[in-house]
């Protein structure tokens, strides 16, 4: 079969026609990982034995006349902060470097029940804290279009795996853009569902009111297939929404009638690289030709979203990461003389610099005398953001903004300036703070062959609207796969 670039539908049809087997599909992707990943560093753990065994079981089921499942034989990669039973789940951190999860996340269970073949766990910024995958304790992943550039973060390894053909689809977590930014930098589709649409059970917590599991894929149709499998209520997650999910895979090609697209033009000019601005206008032209009405909207508090996020998320992280103390599981320093010293040395040695920075920031903002000035005020601004978006969605169906202000930057370019790194998330954090779905759509390439992207946002539980609009953009852009560096 050669270089694996098959879609989910093509795999399903090929298996139905007996053109290839699940084992052959799996082996092709494992071969691609073996050939490319020494340079890409998309994976922290590859699981070839279990993947081949799983594929063989699926082939036996098909030979016995059992029906094809939605994802039968589809190779999938899982971000390494999503628990997979019997496989390392490190969160990209030294403190969990040898931790083997005793159970699987609900999303992983649903993928396997749908016939997926898990080929490995992907690299990420430590505990999801980063925009470039440079904060991984195991070294950065590299952008498949330029090995000297970042793939985005924190789900950088998942985006690289999909873009480079190491997996058909992948899953990441998105707390402030961690699915969408890597998707944008690596030229693939990435979706952050509505908070509560996908179970967080088995996702290692960073910021509990913001974290969401989301899929990455090379097409809108594949993205819809992956979302269809993992979406839905889960009684093990108290934040899981009880409503039934839509049929995301149906009606993607329906005409866009009476669809209104809002754009906050005044907020997307300053600091946005020229090629990204051009992508926005190409997308708007395409949507108008497809029948959409475009109108300017106001989001008065969008400029405050980044400040709000970098208070709320660290505050929740300081609480969630208190459990890593060297007592129950994970890394423990061997050099200490009392319990307090064990806590201090273990956490100082087990956590990387960015995680320590956010823990200290969150702890300070929650401390006595500062709670009202920082966390409480940030929570009030979050409410204002929610009101801004509610007002906007009373007028429009979707909102179009950049995913990131620039294409992928060089490895090491922003590591010495945390504030510059944080501004990478300026257009992605609002969706997490408001709890709405958002989708990054590939929109072309720079003259240097770097992907650029646009981002669609919709009201809560309107993922189908996002997929519908994204499908029309996919047809309008008609992007051909660009040359990879590996």
Structure description:
- There is one protein chain.
- By secondary structure, the protein is α/β, with parallel strands linked by helices.
- The chain has one domain (1-486): Amidase signature (AS) enzymes.
- Helix content is 38%, strand content 12%.
- The chain contains 15 helices and eleven strands.
- The chain has helices spanning 8-16, 22-40, 48-63, 106-113, 156-163, 180-186, 220-230, 274-289, 305-320, 339-350, 353-366, 372-393, 418-422, 429-434, 463-477, and strands at 43-46, 75-79, 117-122, 169-173, 189-192, 213-217, 260-263, 293-296, 398-402, 438-445, 451-458.
- Strands 1-3-2-4-6-5-10-11-9-7-8 form an eleven-stranded mixed beta sheet, with helices on both faces.
- The radius of gyration is 21 Å and the shape is globular.
- The two termini are 18 Å apart.
- The model has no long low-confidence stretch (mean pLDDT 96).
């Amino acid at each position: 079969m050669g270089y694996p670039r098959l879609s989910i539908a093509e795999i399903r049809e090929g298996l139905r026609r007996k053109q290839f087997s699940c084992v052959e599909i799996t082996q092709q992707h494992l071969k691609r990982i073996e050939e490319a990943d020494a340079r890409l560093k998309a994976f922290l753990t590859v699981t070839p034995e279990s993947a081949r065994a799983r594929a063989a079981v699926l082939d036996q089921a098909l030979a016995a006349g059992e029906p094809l499942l939605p994802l039968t034989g589809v190779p999938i990669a899982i971000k390494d902060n999503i628990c997979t039973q019997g496989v390392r789940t490190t969160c990209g951190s030294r403190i969990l470097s040898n931790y083997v999860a005793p159970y699987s996340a609900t999303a992983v269970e649903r993928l396997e029940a749908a016939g997926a073949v898990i080929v490995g766990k992907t690299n990420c910024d430590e505990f999801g804290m980063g925009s470039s995958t440079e904060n991984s304790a195991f070294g950065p992943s590299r952008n498949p279009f330029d090995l000297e550039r970042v793939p985005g973060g924190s789900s950088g390894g998942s985006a690289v795996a999909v873009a480079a053909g190491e997996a058909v689809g992948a899953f990441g977590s998105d707390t402030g853009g961690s699915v969408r930014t890597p998707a944008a930098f690596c030229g693939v589709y990435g979706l952050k569902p509505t908070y509560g649409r996908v179970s967080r059970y088995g996702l290692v917590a960073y910021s509990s009111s913001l974290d969401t599991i989301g899929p990455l894929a090379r097409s809108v149709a594949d993205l819809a297939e992956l979302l269809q499998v993992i979406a839905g209520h889960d009684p093990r997650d108290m934040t899981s929404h009880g409503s039934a999910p839509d049929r995301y895979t149906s009606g993607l090609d329906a005409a866009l009638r009476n669809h209104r697209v809002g754009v906050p033009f005044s907020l997307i000019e300053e600091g946005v690289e020229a090629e990204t601005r051009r992508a926005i206008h190409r997308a708007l032209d395409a949507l108008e030709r497809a029948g959409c009405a475009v109108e300017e909207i106001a989001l008065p508090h969008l400029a405050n979203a980044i400040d709000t996020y970098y208070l709320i998320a660290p505050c929740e992280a300081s609480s969630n990461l208190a459990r890593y103390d060297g007592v129950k599981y994970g890394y423990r320093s061997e050099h200490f003389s009392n319990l307090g010293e064990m806590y201090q040395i273990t956490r100082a040695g087990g956590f990387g610099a960015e995680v320590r920075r956010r823990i200290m920031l969150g702890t300070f903002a929650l401390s006595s005398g500062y709670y009202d000035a920082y966390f409480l005020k940030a929570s009030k601004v979050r409410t204002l953001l929610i009101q801004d978006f509610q007002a906007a969605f009373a007028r429009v169906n979707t909102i179009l903004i950049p995913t990131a202000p620039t294409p992928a930057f060089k490895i090491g370019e922003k590591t010495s300036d945390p504030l510059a790194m944080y501004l990478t998330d300026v257009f992605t954090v609002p969706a997490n703070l408001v709890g709405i779905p958002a989708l990054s759509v590939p929109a072309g390439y720079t003259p240097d062959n770097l992907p650029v992207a646009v981002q669609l946002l919709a009201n809560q539980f309107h993922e189908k609207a996002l997929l519908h609009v994204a499908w029309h953009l996919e047809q309008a852009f008609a992007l051909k796969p660009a040359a990879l560096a590996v």
